[in-house]
Amino acid sequence: METIIEAKHLNKAYNDRVTALMDVNLAIWKGEFVALLGRSGSGKSTLLNILGGLDAPTSGEIRIDGKNIDFSDRKALIALRRGSIGFIFQSFNLIPALTAQENVEYPLLFNYHDRAARRERAADLLATVGLADRAHHYPREMSGGEQQRVAIARALAGDPLIVLADEPTGNLDSKTRDEIFGLMRQVNRERETTFLIVTHERELGRRADRTIELLDGRVVS
Amino acid sequence: MIFGRLIDYLKVSAHQVARKRMRVFLTALGIAIGVAAVVGTVSLGEGVRYQAVEAIKEQSDLTLIEATADIRGGAIQFITPAKIDELAAIQHVEASSAVVREAYTTKRQTYLEVVGIDPGGIEGVIRPKFLRGGPLEPGSRQAVLGHDVAETLQRYEGVRFGDAVPILIRRYDADGMPVDEEVTFTLVGVLQERDDAFDQAMLVDRGVAQELRGDETAFDGVLIRVDHPEEVFGVVDDVKALGLTAKGAFQQIESVNQLMDVVVLILAFFAGVSLIVGVLMIVNTMVTSVFERTREIGITMAIGASPADVVYLILAECFYIGLIGGVLGNLLGVAFTGAINTFGKPFIIARLGDTFSTFAEGDITLITPEILAIGMAIAIVLSLVSGLYPALKAAHLNPVTAIRTGV
User: Among A14, A181, B273, B327, which has the highest number of CB atoms less than 10 A from its own CB?
Assistant: First the structure.
């Protein structure tokens, strides 16, 4: 199997006292659905941000889809976020001024797709997450579960290789949590998109292909 | 492609602006008041300029120009037959006639400003209207007097239409002593009042004047009739291009324009000070807006926006503020000039007195499409400039901290 994410000897220190990651090594296969477990403060969000090119490691190497990531090349990082990575956040983080449809189109705006292509793709993705009838609703008019579905559609808009999700079910009740989790697994199977999901809920970890556990900045399992 | 992207940014920003209508409106009002002040004062200045120029056009013979010799680059440009032909060939010159100028006196020492002109050319360039009598007969010692000088001569010297008038022409003998020669001219015509230099002039046959001067080849100037008032300044430029000087009623318009340029500029400058307040309001609003949307901007960058994309998105919002400010400013400016016309004009006319009675007929302010376009441009450009700092601030946000700590 092909590795899609490979991290070697990753270190991240915010200053002399705070060390977020210590010698993290990991490899994730293409199409895998991986849960990243750990208590708050264990460094899981930091790892996610680094893998998504939002934050730079203090030292270490990362290869995404076989390519080494140069964290000093801002243009390359932007291209990585546009083309290879999709983000899902804990508090949904949709743009409140935009409708569901426009929120899904939003990343494509920066990918410079033409209008018709953006519209069509966003409509398809909203149908995929089961929200075709909510396309013209604003975030404030939707439930948390619906908002997170829109966020999943938005993360998939650029047709990424990898979706990085930071506590995607953290703000949802248990029934909705199961639905959202199920939706992500479904996308993972159907599109063979690699998922790396940060969570502190062990139960969700059991439903992933594999779990990686962080403790105080180190990979423990 | 680029244009399409700008449209896309504007569409997204339109949603942001629409969510904060009241705030955007109030901010735009700040810049609008500045624009209104500039539009109002400039249109007042332009109105006064227009009225003054109209008054000059009405009171004087604008399309009559005289080209005279000039010194260019150390060499005197004489009126030569070649120059006369070149002047006649200038576009929009309807008629032209070379003239000689002399100073004669009557026996009682009344100064006479003499214009020697080809009798055939008088009609075309001077367009005389006779109060009494008619035109000069070529080759004879006849004179046509301007309205004012005719009145003076009649009142103080009893010279009447049809009289033979003795005229003294001063010459200098071999020793340099002045000798006056007496010549008699018959007064064959008197012009109607024209309100220009010809009211004081005596017109004689050019050949006669040259003969009396003893030099039949030199000319002092060329009178030019331009076919339309709008073309006067173009013809003046062409005359100057030939190395000659141009004189005429248009010079008054030039003076008025020079004065009003300065006045309008100073007025606009002081009115423009209020724009600074508008600019500060936009900076404040946009800094607040960026701060409120810190997390949103972080998300935008996380999902693929470059710092430049963020700058464009913020500037697109400023563009709307400028657009609204420009429209409101122009509307307020027009209302402001309306107020000046209604309430300010009677006061101004009362102060100016009869000289500027033409002001009473029209509006004292003048709004041109150019003024409105400039008002619009000021609003948009200042809004975009004001947005630069907040936009750059937003573009420099670190997405990780923006998402984590953002409001």
Answer: A181
Report the 10 Å Cβ neighbour count for B183.
14
Question: Which H or E element spans position A161?
Answer: none
Domain spans in chain B, listed from the N-terminal domain onward: 2-58+255-405, 64-248
Q: In angstroms, rounded to a whole number, what is the distance separating the alpha carbons of residues A45 and A87?
A: 12
* Residue B1: predicted pLDDT: 62
CA distances from B36 to B30, B43, B273, B274, B326 (A): 10, 10, 12, 10, 9
User: What one-letter code names the amino acid at B12?
Assistant: V
* pLDDT tens figures, B117-163: 988 888 888 888 898 888 888 888 999 999 999 999 989 888 888 88
Cβ contacts of A111 on chain B, cutoff 8 Å = 304
- Residue labelled with tokens 């750059």: B392
Distance CA A157, CA B94 (A): 73
Confidence of residue A87 (pLDDT cuts 50, 70, 90): very high
Ranges of H-type helices in B66-166: 81-89, 119-126, 147-157
Interface contact B351, partner A, CB < 8 A: no
Q: Which two tokens stand for residue B402?
A: 């923006």
Confirm whether pTM is higher than 0.90. no
Tell me the C-alpha distance between A31 and A193, whole Å.
5
Torsion angle of the four alpha carbons B314, B319, B322, B327, in this order, in degrees rounded to the nearest 10: -140
pLDDT at residue B359 in the model: 62
Which among B371, B303, B286 is positioned nearest to A106, based on CA atoms?
Answer: B303
The per-residue pLDDT for B383 is 95
Strands A19-29 and B201-205: unpaired
Q: CA-to-CA distance for A167 and A31, rounded, in angstroms?
A: 20
Task: Answer whether B400 sits within 8 Å of A49, measured CB to CB.
Answer: yes
Nearest chain A Cα distance for residue B302, angstroms = 7
**Is B304 near chain A, with CB under 8 Å?**
yes
Burial class (CB in 10 A: 0-12, 13-18, 19+), B329: buried
Domains and CATH numbers, chain A: 33-56+74-209 (3.40.50.300)
| Among chain A residues, CA nearest to B308 | A110
Which residue out of A12, A46, A50, A95 would a mutagenesis test of the B interface target, given it has the greatest number of B Cβ atoms within 10 Å? A95
Summarize pLDDT for B32-70 with one digit per residue, the tens.
999 999 999 999 888 888 888 888 887 778 888 898 888
Torsion B92-B95-B96-B101 (CA) sign: negative
Name which of A87, A102, A114 is nearest B303 (Cβ-Cβ).
A87
